[in-house]
Amino acid sequence: MTLLILGLFRLKNWHRHILRKRDLRARYYRRQARVDIKKGIKELIDSGKLIDRGSDAPIRYVGTFGSTEPDVIFFYTAGVHGNEYFAIQSLIRKIASIDVNELVQTGIQVVCVPIVNQWGFENCRRTTKNRVDLVRNSSYRSQRRDVPSYPLVRGWKSWWIKTFICPLFGQTWYYMGHELEPELIELDKIVDPILHSNCDIWAFDFHTGNNRAKTTIWRHDLDQREYVPNYLRRVLLKEDISFGKIDYAIDGGIHEYFHLRYQEIQAKKGISEKNRKTLNAFTFELAVLDDASNAKYRDQYFNGSVFEPHPKERETKLEREVKKLSVLFEAVKKRMQLKRKTAY
Hints:
The chain is of the alpha/beta class. The chain has one domain (about 25-344): 3-Layer(aba) Sandwich (Aminopeptidase). It contains 14 helices and 8 strands. It has helices at about 1-10, 15-45, 85-95, 100-105, 120, 135, 140, 155-170, 180-195, 225, 230-240, 255-270, 295-300, 310-344, and strands at about 50, 60-65, 70-80, 110-115, 200-210, 215-220, 240-245, 280-285. Strands 1-2-4-3-5-8-6-7 form an 8-stranded mixed beta sheet, with helices on both faces. The longest helix has about 35 residues, at about 15-45.
């Protein structure tokens, strides 16, 4: 009888042993990714593309390189969610591939923050040490002004999050906090001189897409297709980059926050919308999975490995995503060079 009870107990809890084994494996691969990221950051520091501001700084690594008198500024961020190592790795490799001398010749400056949420990165957490989601925390300022405020997600997804995700995970997923976090206050200081410059600005915030098989892009407006330039739209479609669904409106995401700050600064300067320089702020969710089934997605989602590709596919997918970013960078660079020539 005792053996039967023990057998039934083991049968009932067999999945826990599998999950524990998977979790240990996931931890190992995350640790390997973290080592690779730190190695990449060290190489960027040695090359002069990044500066280490010390472990006490809210944002530790910041880089500014290229032209000192730019016509165009590219602003890159990643690691807003600290556990999205794939996005951080992709951005670091992209930064490493940029030729500084070419930027100087073409009047382009690159400003990059590869890890916005340093504590989350070190502890493999989505949130800050205050358990605040920085994407939602960035809406704190916008919600205090008379600007449109969109729900986090719409339709049945909103019901799913309110009914299951928030009660299950509490303040670990979408908690926006009660005031701006130190990381965003510091990011604001980095962003401020960029927004005050008389340059065309292209801002990209990189994330790791959940179960997306395609790289997805969101712009600061809901009707994003209408506002994306035709030449860029063609590049996005060619590189298999899709537009994010309008029913997933990221309220106060970094890209929206960036846009609102720019509008505020330009209005204070008294510059009309017609005479303003170009500002395009985007959020990119890099593809992780390839046509995953719903069952596989659910399994990965609740076991914490949804933000990481399979280790055997990681290198291939990193190369693929970095190539997409490079093609996009080159397309914008050529268009800005053409604009510069016609201006003279």
